[in-house]
Amino acid sequence: MFDKMTLQVLANHARAAAENMAHTLHRTAHSAFVKETQDFTVMLMDRTGDTFAVPMELGATWYPGLTYGRAIDMVDDYRPGDVAFTNDPYSGHVATHAPDTHLWKPVFADDEIVAWTGGHIHNTDMGGAVPASLSRSLTEIHQEGLRFPPMKLVREGVFDEQIMQIMSTNVRKPALNIGDIKALVGALNTGERKVHAMIDRFGKQGFVSGVAALKAQAEAQARAILSEIPDGDYVFADYADEDSDEANPCRLKLTLKIRGDEAILDFTGSDPQLASSLNVPSGGDPRHTILLVGVYYVLYTLNPRILLNTGLTQPFICIAPEGTVLNPVAPAAVGMRSLTCARLRSVIFGAFVQAIPDRMPAAPAGNNCIVNVMTRDERSQRTVIAAVNPVVGGGGGMPHRDGTNGSGADAAYLKNTPIEITETEVPVEFVKYGLARDTGGAGRWRGGLATEMAFRVFTPDSRITARNRDRSFFRPWGTDGGRAAGLADMVVNPGTPDARRMGSKDTAILQPGDVLEVRSAGGGGRGNPLEREPWRVARDVARGYVSPEAAERDYGVILKDGEVDEAATEAARAAMPAPSEAFFHYGPEREGSEARWTDEAYDRLTEILAGLPIHWRFFTKTEIFRRLDGTGAAAVEAAFEATCGRFPELPRPQAFAEAAE
Fold first, then answer.
1. Measured between alpha carbons, how far is 255 from 351 in angstroms, rounded to an integer?
2. Distance (Å, rounded) from C-alpha 236 to C-alpha 241?
3. CB neighbours (10 Å) of residue 409?
4. pLDDT of 490-531, one tens digit each?
5. DSSP code, position 529
């Protein structure tokens, strides 16, 4: 039995080992997306494949609760020096889209597996229909690139060259993929050495029992946090702008049920499985890490000393019905699951902010747009494909300060690539990169500003993918009297007669001289804007965060020669209408949409769709949206009846069949 001090020593050793793994990968990776943006993970796992240590300084922050158990069991006869891998979202449910290649390696002691080292790298490209493999428009997973079910990549220290050759033949930039994979293998080897060092210090059995104790401690910490949250059912919904190229919204709905030191996250009422790549492949796992990412952020916000490992997942049960956007069945496309995951986090935050309003911020931007370019470099006469930069929005207004500018809470781990490095590796010219004025939601605590970036290309038919394009219609919400944030946007040739606004489209073809401008959303505001001190507003104007016009419109602050006009400000604020008593502010776009698609109407829609065979659901949703005339559940039922009349092959749910008889 470990005492608290010894357990903390083990926890420190484990985290240091994970940090060493991360530094190994970071320093030896080949692609800018891994070595600069840091879209990778590394971890230490117990003998069952449950994560017990992750780094805090480098890499993505989604996976402290990931378990490799199902994937590990799909490979037989592990031996020292073996490394297995997969990137198939439907095999083992470790990978969640094809570019994420996960590797794991057994750690032996006395001829027994006592731990695993593992992690993933996001490959710049895995082949498929579009450069970088990802686009919302793709409709089945076969279009999203080459997939490998769990299998051995390295056998007793020797790479399987046939697998490497298959990958090299099918991806657009094989040297980047192979280089990053070998860097990750090096990181796993580093982790293996560190595990042996811990075994030398604590003994084999001491190490094994200590790891179990670390998981138990994380579970206890999570339960302690939940026990301080009032029991209740907290319901929240949010929307992705478009469910496909048909451009209907995609709704995620959550009923968060807090009961003592346990919680249920019931996603019943979310949209059906989509005919686009926004689906999230959770595999029906009630504790799948991808469903709980928002929970990790909440727990860590409430207790920054909490241990990050699989133990955190134990107090939670997720309900995601099969055939819905959060639990699709093959061959549904899943490449853009990160867009839906951003909205999933917004939904989780929205539920928790109702439970503990004094401790939670307003909505972060919730769109981490990652721009990839495929173009020709005239200097080297070769084709280049590379991630240019993540365009991440602002954080929501906090209970005690403004939201972070250009680094929205739940996507802050994505690092920007210095412009000089990008221009060296990719033949583009940056013409703008910075913060976008007037994009943070107004509030007592202002939301963080959006990021905006623009670059010029020089060769014909340069192909751009900008994955996770969202929040061009549904704004990040404000809370407690705060206002919703500014919208995202993407424009080709802005400020010219040829300007083309792209909305939430995530692909574009540019010609020589074309400029692409991408802007994220801002963060929502928190608290009444009229309670913000005028001097803070004046400082925001001086820094370029807020325009003088917005200072007067949103905050009632009148400036004269850069200074606050106290009398005019007092009069302006007195004349402004009293703020709404509604806790959330969503913005006119969502308010207009929900005037037609009320909660009652949308709930009835999802009830009808749940009664249909999976392959009919998305089609029927699209047809009901097209035919809806009026509001409320009755209008939805009428639209469904009209759809059945047009398509007699459509099988009716039992209740409708009985009513028709």
1. 8
2. 17
3. 24
4. 999 999 998 999 877 778 899 999 999 999 999 999 999 999
5. G
